[in-house]
Amino acid sequence: TPASYFLAQNNPPSLQNHSARIIISFSHFVPRTELIFPTVEELQALGIPLVDPQPRFNFSRVAGCRGLERQIRTLGSTVHVYGHQHRNRRRHIDGITYVSHCLGYPRERAEGRITKGLHEPLQIWDTDTEALS
């Protein structure tokens, strides 16, 4: 499968012997299915009703990769930054903070699908405080 091919390119076991205290990993694809859907709190914060703008396309059928999640955990990631879904998320699940910070398409910004005011890069880690930003 395509997922197997790309997972084989990562080779995380070679990265287990590191001395880093903080590991920030990155992927284009969504590593966990729980990250696909917004929480009630996220919807309320955005003021967005749960409406599917593309009802014929079910993103949940193709997103979330258990193999990628295993690799993230093998690495010992503190933070994992991912993309692909065009939805901003920041969630802490089982010891890892997952961050998706998308700038989105102009239409998505106009519709309020991308959080207003977040149209620039996001600082993930503050090296001075050694903490999540």
How would you describe the overall organization of this protein?
16% of the residues are buried. Helices cover 23% and strands 17% of the residues. The protein contains four helices and six strands, in the order αβααβββαββ. A four-stranded mixed sheet has the order 1-2-4-3, with helices on one face. The radius of gyration is 16 Å and the shape is globular. The protein has helices at 2-10, 40-46, 66-75, 106-110; strands at 24-27, 79-82, 89-93, 96-100, 125-126, 131-132. The chain starts with a helix and ends with a strand. It is of the alpha/beta class.
Summarize the structure.
This protein has helices at residues 2-10, 40-46, 66-75, 106-110; strands at 24-27, 79-82, 89-93, 96-100, 125-126, 131-132.
Order of helices and strands: HEHHEEEHEE
Structural class: alpha/beta
Query: Count of helices?
Result: 4
CA radius of gyration = 16 Å
For the termini, the CA-CA separation is: 37 Å
Low-confidence stretches: none
- What topology, given as strand order, has the largest sheet? 1-2-4-3
- The residue-averaged pLDDT reads 78
Morphology: globular
Beta-strand proportion: 15-25%
What is the makeup of the main sheet? Answer: 4 strands, mixed
DSSP helix fraction: 10-25%
Give the total of beta strands. Answer: 6
Summarize the helices and strands and which ones pair or pack:
Elements: H1 2-10, E1 24-27, H2 40-46, H3 66-75, E2 79-82, E3 89-93, E4 96-100, H4 106-110, E5 125-126, E6 131-132
Parallel strand pairs: 1-2, 2-4
Antiparallel strand pairs: 3-4, 5-6
